[in-house]
Design brief:
Layout (H helix, E strand, L loop, with lengths): L1 H14 L4 E4 L6 H9 L4 E4 L12 H6 L5 E4 L5 H6 L4 E4 L17 H7 L3 E4 L4 H12 L4 E4 L19 H10 L2 E4 L12 H8 L3 E4 L2 H7 L7 E3 L2 H13 L2 H17 L4 H16 L8
Parallel strand pairs: 1-2, 2-3, 3-4, 5-6, 5-7, 7-8, 8-9
Helix pairs in contact: 6-10, 8-11
Pfam families: Glyco_trans_1_2
Organism: Brevifollis gellanilyticus
InterPro entries: YkvP/CgeB_Glyco_trans-like
């Protein structure tokens, strides 16, 4: 950690940046943050994970947190925590998508639609809460496909585990699947996740956890996505989605994509928001990110 911090400080002395962006629990220590602040280099953090989540708890990071000029968090649950912890500027900023990675594929074949069109797809690692959801679907007899790490370690789910897929294959799975399961990390106190933007940008039909963030993004039930609140409603909604004609699912997927695209929810836009917030508040100037 000290070695990384020293390397960042040396780089800053060399290139003299206008500002520095740190993502998540990056190993930048409090001493280096103080040095950068003293040198007039504002450092901001886009806090991708909840530092109060026991799985991510790191005393060195908690000591460093108050030394960031601003912290942008994609979860409302962190806002008051961060202010109470002494962070000077706390701002809510949702996750986003990257247009160069998250777009509808043009190479989905009829074989792909037959292979994945009748199942609920989930792409991500086998966290405990995700395993519970997958088991509920499996136990209810809902066709299921699981991509990501560690699913093969669960004997009752191993038949549905397909390992890791590359980006191009993931896009095809999302676009062709009868439904894509979109979960939040409850241990992170998330109201939405990265997948909340990535999946609709790719053009998937979505089955999402019912949260305030998701309602603001996707509207009412059936307008663009289907919602669930527990495993019972998840399985019933999954069955309902899979029973719909493909044209209706495509209509929902298109509506979800339109909502995400029209909201300007790219990471380039998020970067501009950070930059404008930082310099608009402090120096009265805005530096375009392009």
């Amino acid at each position: 950690m000290g070695q990384f911090s020293q390397a960042v400080w040396a780089r800053c002395q060399s290139v003299k940046p206008d500002w520095v962006l740190v993502t998540g629990l990056a190993p930048l220590n409090e001493v280096t943050l103080q040095r950068m602040d003293g040198a007039g280099i504002p450092v901001v953090n886009f806090l991708t994970d909840d530092p109060w989540n026991r799985q991510h708890r790191a005393p060195w990071f908690m000591r460093a947190l108050p030394h960031y000029r601003h912290v942008f968090t994609p979860r409302h649950a962190n806002e008051d925590d961060l202010r109470a912890h002494g962070v000077r500027g706390v701002f809510y900023l949702p996750f986003a998508y990257a247009p160069e990675d998250h777009f509808p594929p043009d190479d989905v074949t009829e074989v792909d639609r037959q292979r994945w069109g009748g199942l609920v797809a989930f792409i991500g690692g086998a966290d405990a809460d995700r395993v519970a959801c997958a088991r509920a679907l499996n136990d209810a007899g809902v066709p299921l496909g699981l991509w990501g790490g560690y699913w093969q370690n669960y004997p009752d789910l191993a038949a549905h585990a397909h390992g890791h897929a590359d980006a191009a294959t993931c896009r095809k799975i999302v676009a062709a699947a009868g439904a894509n399961l979109c979960l939040v990390r409850r241990a992170n106190r998330d109201g939405h996740s990265m997948r909340s933007y990535e999946l609709p940008a790719i053009g998937g039909c979505l089955l999402v956890e019912d949260t305030e963030d998701h309602r603001r993004l996707f509207g009412e039930e059936g307008e663009a996505v289907s919602y669930f609140t527990d495993t019972a409603s998840m399985t019933s909604q999954a069955r309902r989605l899979l029973a719909l004609p493909a044209s209706e699912r495509s209509h929902m997927a298109a509506a979800a994509r339109d909502r995400v695209i029209s909201s300007g929810a790219t990471y380039a836009c998020r970067l501009e928001t950070m930059e404008q917030t930082l310099f608009g508040h402090e120096q009265g100037r805005f530096i375009p990110s392009a």
